[in-house]
Task: inverse folding
């Protein structure tokens, strides 16, 4: 029986219980599925057995950039926040998922934020006057998605399934669940992203067979091997890297651009500009074998070939393949035994990735469901099932991605639950006491495969209290480590001699305590009403501002050419601009601002169309690809310049 | 891991070492479908906790039934000998003096082997671990729990040796 170093820990009693909310009756068909991604998030519905569909905004986009802007009087999420990113980088948070469940020491990638660690393991970001946890930032994204869903449903949703990378550890998962609660969601389940994708594909195809899901998102990589049989989706093994994704491809190419430009010590703005240019170039290189990249902030105009890009990302790509081979081994499956391999995530569009996947799994990958939407579809399906609708259930048997262990004498890890064990699963250990004075003990739980606790990921310290005083080695404290269906850990303890349940206080290594989450939930409930209204107005202002700027700039540049813009039409555009200005100046509510924007867009549309045609015609008449790209890149750099004009049109009004 | 359940009973299988893989898989899917916590997502906290515990027992049993070593160990436990206990009556039998001397000898061979001799030594011990398991299984069928327990204890020593040898590599 392992003997753990014990100490007297005092008299406070707190019980660690799974969150016990009073259950109101479920409302079938009102479950929502959320894909909370690093780069983009989506919300989807599949009510009462219907096929899933992603909810789109007025411009037809289902992807909500996972970006949150904190202005003095409003919080913006999505494209509106994205519009403010270049000029106010310190107020705009993107890729917050990379900070969830992490401590300061874990952050090893470049980012423009000021991070602090008030208490060890609890990371906060300085955003203007506020100091926020990544959990609160994620909660804003979830809140916006919830509102989008409720607008479609016409009534409050019952609950949500939120997806997480399969390779997320306990702290990262708990942070996601906490964010959901703070956003006012009843989180039915956390669902692993590859499993969600398998659910969407599997049900689509009459589900039978062995599948691998290769999921490369913006910030995380997962590989899962699943068996689908008789309505049961069984994950056989999972692997991956929760800090590897398309963002890293962007960064690798950005470094290449910085090298080419000869910029040794880039400023924050230059880093951002390089990254955004790299991302755009990466996307172009999916279709083209070379592309022109112009980054005015670096003074760079250069040609980048697909081969150069591939060379820069090869090491990253190979890391994913190593994880694939290990996971196939863990599952006991050979590539030839697979019935298919599914691609998930925008980054799987990169040709080199597709080629490597086909080579590793010895078959052409499947991507017929939009790789950006498939995870949200799966989440929506499961949310519908859990809402109690009449939909035929699918049983999802998932696994824990990392071994769970206890730190014992000398810092060695004793594994109690192996990785890839199907969840829910429990392990029991019996501990004893060293001396009669000891009434408590501390158990340090870690996750990972290494021998020493310090090389693994610390999960939490569990303090057991109130053990009855007994002679040395007489106490028998049975501790149960229970992983639930979300792979979240609950620890309970019982003294076997007396049969008494022990109290267990949880001290998570990374993340908020239960009380802190409760407090944030209460705060957000208080502000829910005001936030919604001010967010709407602020978003409408930003959108209108963008259109105003675009139209004004176009008028300035080519508005004098009568073949592009007849004078009579110009007059109507000017009138629409005047109304838009008036609405902005009057600090009008969201309705009036949206109307003004819609009118301006409609009236200036023929002018915009003519400009586009002109550009295309210029491009197609015998010019080389090089020249067309050049011309388009010119347009791009012009747009970048324009983006720099926005500040005076948005933001808080001066008193 | 939980070892206080009878996986054979849970899966409705005869209590013997040889199992039909297909049957284990089929029973596992049936049981999992019926017991998954998602089925009771709308119920009370107590009901959901019971479901989590039920599903955990099924998953633990599945893991045992799929692994020939764990299967042998649980059969021995059900027959009255707990290999994880040091209780003189119902716990793991002590290895013989001769066996312990052999293990010391093996450790010396490990030190002397060096990287060249290591693979051959590893294969030799893997074979011995396999043989110990086979002997245990034979003893179980023959109803000799004590002998089975002794072979399984020996197998654990070989297993630990192989794990340490890994770090020497």
Result:
């Amino acid at each position: 029986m392992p003997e753990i170093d014990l100490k007297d820990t005092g008299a406070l009693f707190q019980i660690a219980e799974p969150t016990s909310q009073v259950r109101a009756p479920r409302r079938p068909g009102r479950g929502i599925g959320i894909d909370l991604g690093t780069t983009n998030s989506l919300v989807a519905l599949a009510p009462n057995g219907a096929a899933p569909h992603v909810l789109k905004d007025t411009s037809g986009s289902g992807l909500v950039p996972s970006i949150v802007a904190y202005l003095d009087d409003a919080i913006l999420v999505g494209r509106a926040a994205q519009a403010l990113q270049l000029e106010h980088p310190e107020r705009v948070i993107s890729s917050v998922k990379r900070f969830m469940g992490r401590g300061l020491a874990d952050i090893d990638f470049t980012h423009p934020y000021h991070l602090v660690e008030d208490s060890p393991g609890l990371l906060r970001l300085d955003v203007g006057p506020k100091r926020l946890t990544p959990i609160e930032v994620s909660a804003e994204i979830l809140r916006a998605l919830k509102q989008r869903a409720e607008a479609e449903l016409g009534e409050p949703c019952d609950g949500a399934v939120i997806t997480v990378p399969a390779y997320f550890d306990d702290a990262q998962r708990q942070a996601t669940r906490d964010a959901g609660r703070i956003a006012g969601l009843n989180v039915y389940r956390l669902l692993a992203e590859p499993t969600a994708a398998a659910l969407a594909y599997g049900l689509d195809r009459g589900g039978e067979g062995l599948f691998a899901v290769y999921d490369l998102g913006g910030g995380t990589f997962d590989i899962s091997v699943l068996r689908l049989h008789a309505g049961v989706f069984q994950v056989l093994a999972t692997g991956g890297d929760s800090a590897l994704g398309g963002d890293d491809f962007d960064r690798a190419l950005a470094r290449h651009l910085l090298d080419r430009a000869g910029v040794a010590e880039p400023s924050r703005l230059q880093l951002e500009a390089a990254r955004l240019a790299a991302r755009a170039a990466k996307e172009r290189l999916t279709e083209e074998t070379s592309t022109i990249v112009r980054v005015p902030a670096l003074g760079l105009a250069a040609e980048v070939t697909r081969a150069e890009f591939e060379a820069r990302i090869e090491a990253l790509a190979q890391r994913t393949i190593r994880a694939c081979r290990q996971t196939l081994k863990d599952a006991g499956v050979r590539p030839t035994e697979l019935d298919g391999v599914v691609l998930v995530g925008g980054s799987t569009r990169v040709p080199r990735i597709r080629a490597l996947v086909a080579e590793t799994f010895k078959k052409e990958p499947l991507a017929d469901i939009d790789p950006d939407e498939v995870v949200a579809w799966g989440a929506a399906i499961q949310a519908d099932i859990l809402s109690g609708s009449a939909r035929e259930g699918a049983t999802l048997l998932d696994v824990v991605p990392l071994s769970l262990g206890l730190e014992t004498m000398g810092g060695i890890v004793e594994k109690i639950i192996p990785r890839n064990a199907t969840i829910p699963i429990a392990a029991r250990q019996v501990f004893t006491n060293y001396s009669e004075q000891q009434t408590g003990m501390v158990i340090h739980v870690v996750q990972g495969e290494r021998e020493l606790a310090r090389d693994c990921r610390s999960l939490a310290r569990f303090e057991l209290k109130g053990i009855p005083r007994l002679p040395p080695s007489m106490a028998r404290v049975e501790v149960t480590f229970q992983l639930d269906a979300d792979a979240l850990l609950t620890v309970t303890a019982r003294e076997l001699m007396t049969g008494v349940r022990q109290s267990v206080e949880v001290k998570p290594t990374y993340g908020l305590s239960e009380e802190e989450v409760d407090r944030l939930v209460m705060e957000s409930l208080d502000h829910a009403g005001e936030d919604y209204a001010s967010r709407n107005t602020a978003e409408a202002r930003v959108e209108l501002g963008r259109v105003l700027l675009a139209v004004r700039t176009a008028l300035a540049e080519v508005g004098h050419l009568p073949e592009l813009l007849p004078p009579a039409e110009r007059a109507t555009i000017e009138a629409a601009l005047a109304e838009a200005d008036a609405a902005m100046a009057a600090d009008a509510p969201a309705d009036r601002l949206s109307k003004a924007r819609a009118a301006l867009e409609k009236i200036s549309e023929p002018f915009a169309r003519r400009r586009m045609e002109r550009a295309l015609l210029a491009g197609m008449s015998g010019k080389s690809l090089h020249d067309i790209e050049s011309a388009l890149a010119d347009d791009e750099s012009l747009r970048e310049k324009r983006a720099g004009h926005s500040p005076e049109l948005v933001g808080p009004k001066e008193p | 891991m939980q070892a206080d359940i009878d996986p054979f009973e849970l899966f409705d299988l005869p209590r013997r070492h040889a199992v039909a893989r297909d049957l284990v898989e089929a029973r596992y899917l049936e049981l999992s479908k019926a017991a998954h916590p998602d089925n009771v997502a709308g119920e009370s906290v107590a009901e959901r906790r019971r479901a989590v515990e039920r599903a955990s027992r099924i998953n633990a049993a599945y893991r045992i039934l799929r692994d020939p070593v764990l299967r042998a160990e649980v059969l021995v436990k059900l027959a009255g000998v707990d290999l994880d206990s040091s209780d003189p009556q119902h716990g793991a039998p002590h290895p013989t003096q001769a066996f312990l001397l052999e293990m010391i000898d093996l450790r010396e061979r490990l030190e002397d082997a060096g990287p060249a001799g290591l693979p051959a030594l590893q294969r030799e011990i893997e074979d011995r671990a396999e043989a110990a398991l086979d002997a245990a299984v034979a003893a179980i069928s023959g109803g000799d729990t004590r002998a089975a327990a002794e072979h399984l204890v020996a197998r654990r020593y070989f297993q630990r040796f192989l794990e340490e040898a890994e770090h020497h590599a």
About this structure: Residues 97-141 of chain B form the longest helix (45 residues). DSSP finds six helices and no strands in chain B. Chain B touches chain A at residues 1-2, 4, 29, 32-33, 36-39, 41-45, 48-49, 52-53, 55-56, 59-60, 62-63, 86 (CB under 8 Å).
